[in-house]
Amino acid sequence: MPGKRKRPYSDIDFTLKRVFKKPGFRPLQREVVTATLEGEDVFLQAATSFGKSLCYQLPAVVDFGMTIVVSPLLALMNNQVAALRNARIRVETINSTTTPSERTRILADLQCGHPLTRLLYVTPEFCQGDNFRRILRIIHSQKELARIAVDEAHCVSEWGHDFRPSFQQLSFFKTEFPDVPIICLTATATARVREDIIQTLALDTSKLKMFRMTTSRPNLHYEVRFKSDDEDHYPNFLAWLKAAHARRAANPERASQLASQNQRADNVPGIIYTLFRKDCESLAARLRSDGIGAKPYHAGLPHSDRADALSGWVANKPGYDIVVATTAFGMGIDKENVRFVVHWQLPKSFEGFYQEAGRAGRDGKASVCILYYGREDRDRASKMMSRDQVRQYKGKEAPVPAMQEQMKHRAKSLLALTEYCEATNKCRHKIIADYFADEEVPTCHFACDWCKDAVGLVKRKEKGLASEEWCSTQREQGRYDVDEYE
Ligand SMILES: Nc1ncnc2c1ncn2[C@@H]1O[C@H](COP(=O)(O)OP(=O)(O)OP(=O)(O)O)[C@@H](O)[C@H]1O
Fold this sequence. Notes:
Elements: H1 12-18, H2 29-37, E1 42-45, H3 54-62, E2 66-70, H4 74-86, E3 91-94, H5 100-111, E4 119-122, H6 124-127, H7 130-141, E5 145-150, H8 171-176, E6 182-186, H9 191-200, E7 209-212, E8 220-226, H10 234-249, H11 252-260, E9 270-273, H12 277-289, E10 294-297, H13 303-314, E11 322-325, E12 340-343, H14 350-357, E13 367-373, H15 375-393, H16 401-422, H17 428-435, H18 449-452, H19 454-464, H20 468-476
Parallel strand pairs: 1-6, 1-7, 2-4, 2-5, 3-4, 5-6, 8-13, 9-11, 9-12, 10-11, 12-13
Helix pairs in contact: 2-3, 15-16
Residues 22, 25-26, 29, 46, 48-54, 187, 332, 334, 336, 358, 362 line the site of adenosine-5'-triphosphate (ATP).
């Protein structure tokens, strides 16, 4: 029910245990849940795998009325809907995969004004539809519109790394329903992105409850491996993976522990991110020819192939050990035992890197995040950026200031990521915390290549990278012109 509510919710602990099967709240979750239930507008920024979804899912179950969840990705929605249905929560989603008969059934439930649906997951594009807005007015008039959750809220911002234009229309919620609380959630927002989200959603800063947690993920072991165009880095990765397999096989105690958790000892689940669709397919095929179960995942594949790759991988099925993906597979993917995330090339942005690496170790256990960095890739990435800039400005008399700003932000983010890769004088956890302007200094117990062996890191860098002189000649000769990303 919209409006501020100042009574304690004694049943949140009960619901946490009984419905969500969690032993207790993680730090700050209770505060966020309570603020949401009290009708406050909330902004939550917290590390990947913090448990942000629970902060709107639990209120949706405890409270009256319906919660609308605006979410940018199909895979993310379907993943969460399946988990909530498992917990016997009435949840629905309307997206491009919803059949017409399903859609009719869901809308009929909403039209009555007193929906049985507790959570409704929709895309920002769907929120723009007149019919949906009309239905929302009916639900609101019956005091059944409980709250709006905007997940992956950085997509709202033009300066966020996954900007989606239709997110910009979401101010509709606050202007039409000022008494309905909004909660926005993200793992990756710089100060500027935060401001932009708040402004775009028409939130009032003086009333907004802001929760900012550290972005630090101490169980992730960050490592940069150096490469150059001259050398194929596949053998390096395969050797690392085979060594990890051998370690598992040599530990029968671990094998029986994994078996008891419905996991397998003869694989190590992971994700490899690449920028190009063609690499997804060829790399997955190459791994399969070496006896590793790997599946490609990118937006160009049929929906059924993507769904099969995702469900097989989540279920630890043989043949589905590694997903080789573009960024189409990222935000919100929640599989607890991902033991490694590898970036096959330099990603497009610092935020994207952090978000994707954050798919690893969601069970809190040690996991590895390897980024293969080459200076040629850096030069290709900046070439791509300049080309995008030219395209954006095409046909315009003068560059639009907002576009210029956006480009500046993109360049800054890429530069920060390059500096992360080139750095040999600082803990990688610290570099990440600095980028997001964390107030806390992160702890790193030998959980990055610099803290483990700074001298070795310098040597590997000297040996592995093409020289700047070489790269500069290549640049002059236009060698770094590339295909489209994805
Ligand atoms: N209090 C809790 N106790 C135990 N597990 C929890 C708790 N809260 C959430 N989790 C689990 O933590 C995992 C991560 O939660 P969730 O997917 O909401 O993360 P997130 O913060 O949205 O991360 P990301 O930004 O990376 O998507 C889920 O498997 C969820 O079930």
